[in-house]
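Notes from hallway chat w/ T.B., transcribed later so I don't forget. T.B. wanted the structure written out for a chain they're using in a teaching module, and asked if we could keep both sequence and structure tokens in one place. Agreed to drop them here.
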Amino acid sequence: MGKVKSGNLAMAYTPAKNDITVEELESRYNEVTILYDLAGELVETVESDFVNTPESQWAIVEPLINEIGDATDVLTEEFIHVAEGVKRGAQGKASKSRIEGALRRMYAALNDYRERVRNVTKQAYNALENIADPIVAKIQRQVERVIVIFLEFMQLSLASIMNQAELSQLKAREARVALMMHQMAQQQ
């Protein structure tokens, strides 16, 4: 079993080097790439029969789609570095700062999306809010799963990735994160 390293809201679960199989690494990689599929679902909202003004819908979702794609490119690349390190039984050459930056940009893009929806909703386009929001909620949950995946392999500063409310939500939905944070507090 792994251990939690102490730090200011930074933690990591470090599995024993032989505990993880190639299949498990592939499964975790696939969890990261699901973000591409979810971005594709957002594109489909623009093409939906329920959208009266596709241009308005596109203006709402396009920045989020672009950021998800760009950040997922970084995360998949960095996960490959992590996996290569695990296969060799050593620390991978993944860049913690690139991973944190990509995750931070996703959280910012999600918050920006919500702000655009609020602004459009004020103009009485409430249907725009409803069509993409379920997909955005799935994206939020998937980003949280990706965070947990990376926490298994390296120390990340969650405070630099998300705000306190988002961190509380993450802990509530992902028991492993709450456990890691509890163990970290016990060690201090």
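Follow-up for T.B.: Residues 1-17 have pLDDT under 50 and may be disordered. Might be a good example for the class.
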